[in-house]
């Protein structure tokens, strides 16, 4: 493909992945991320769009899998990761970079649409559908999937503030009890908590 196309796909995928991540986290003031994984995903997906028959090997796994199968699995994992907010991974940047990589590859080599339309459609269909739902109904990002068992991802600041709030609530309850029934009405655990506070 040459260094010019390579660098174009790389930097546009980096930009596309970052913009998609910023869009997803536009209401999260404490969000931060670093890295170029969206650009790498763009290069991989552009390669799969141009050469769908390539094989991709993963570190520590001796077998290789078809590029289109890897890419389709990657899209599914990324969508699940965005929905469940799983781990400390930029799934949104990965998906945005991958989509940008495919689109840039098509723009640079439009003939691949005719030769590789099935793998390209298989990759674009779930990604574009997911993007449509995010734009049309952004609240779907707030709903936990059945796989996350009702747990929501909280930042360290949110966890700290929740612990602080719960502790203050316990102290307020103890102080109300002292006000109503006196200090002798406290249990041993309540006295320890009051001493600790």
TrEMBL record:
Domain of life of the source = Bacteria
Membrane topology according to the record:
Multi-pass membrane protein
Residues spanning the membrane: 6-24, 36-59, 65-82, 89-108
List the SUPFAM superfamilies: Rhomboid-like
- Pfam families with a match to the protein in the record: DUF6576 (PF20216), Rhomboid (PF01694)
Q: Where in the cell is it found?
A: Membrane
**Which molecular function term from Gene Ontology is one that the record holds?**
serine-type endopeptidase activity
An annotated GO cellular component: membrane
Please give the PANTHER family that the UniProt record associates with this protein: PEPTIDASE S54 RHOMBOID DOMAIN-CONTAINING PROTEIN, RHOMBOID PROTEASE
| Name of this chain's protein | Rhomboid family protein
User: Which species is listed as the source?
Assistant: Sporocytophaga myxococcoides
């Amino acid at each position: 493909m040459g260094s010019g196309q390579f660098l174009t796909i790389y930097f546009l995928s980096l930009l596309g992945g970052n913009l998609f991540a910023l869009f997803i986290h536009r209401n999260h003031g404490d969000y931060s991320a670093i890295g170029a994984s969206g650009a790498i995903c763009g290069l991989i997906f552009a390669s799969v769009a141009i050469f769908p028959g390539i094989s991709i090997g993963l570190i520590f796994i001796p077998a290789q899998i078809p590029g289109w199968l890897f890419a389709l699995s990657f899209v599914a994992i990324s969508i699940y990761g965005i929905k469940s907010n799983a781990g400390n991974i930029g799934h949104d940047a990965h998906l945005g970079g991958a989509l940008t990589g495919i689109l840039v590859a098509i723009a640079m080599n439009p003939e691949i649409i005719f030769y590789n339309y099935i793998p390209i459609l298989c990759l674009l269909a779930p990604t574009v559908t997911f993007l449509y739902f995010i734009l049309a109904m952004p609240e779907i990002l707030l709903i936990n999937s059945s796989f996350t068992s009702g747990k929501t991802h909280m930042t360290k600041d949110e966890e700290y503030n929740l612990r602080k709030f719960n502790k203050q609530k316990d102290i307020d309850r103890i102080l109300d009890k002292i006000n109503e029934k006196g200090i002798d009405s406290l249990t041993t655990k309540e006295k320890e908590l009051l001493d600790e506070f």
